[in-house]
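User: I'm curious whether this sequence folds into something compact or stays loose and floppy. Could you predict its structure so I can see for myself?
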Amino acid sequence: MADKKITDLTELTEAASDDYLEIVDTSANASKKITRENLIGFAGTWQSYTPSLSWSDGTTDPTSATFDYAKYMQIGKMVTVQIILTVKRGSGNRVYATIGLPINSSVNGLAGTGVEDLTSALRQPFNVSSYAYNAVTAYLPSAMSRDGSIRLTFTYPIA
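Assistant: Here's the prediction. I'll summarize afterward.
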């Protein structure tokens, strides 16, 4: 292959995870091979995690809150998280739920959306944002008034 230009090679239209690419390792000043999988990082599998949870605004926490689904997927330097949190209100009247991230974010101030049915029988959209690198806060439209759930999906960058 030393006598061919890269532009003269047959094009591969779909690379398998174990296919090799040529890469120049500038720290070693040498050409090396790398798999597509190692180049883009871990991809493709949802991983479970146990997020932390805290409540704020209002005066009383709900009776219980259970993560029915808490998974994430990392592709390269991006992480996507999906969460379903079932809440038994009791006398709880909180407005903000702060949920821990599986991997710290590289930015402060990420934003997203979710839906909830804790403030109304109809699913309501709400904002999700972060003011820390390790958690996001779900901002309910008003204080909890019934049992229900919080569902959110968001993607964020990592270092």
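Summary: The first helix runs from residue 36 to 40. DSSP finds one helix and eleven strands in the chain.
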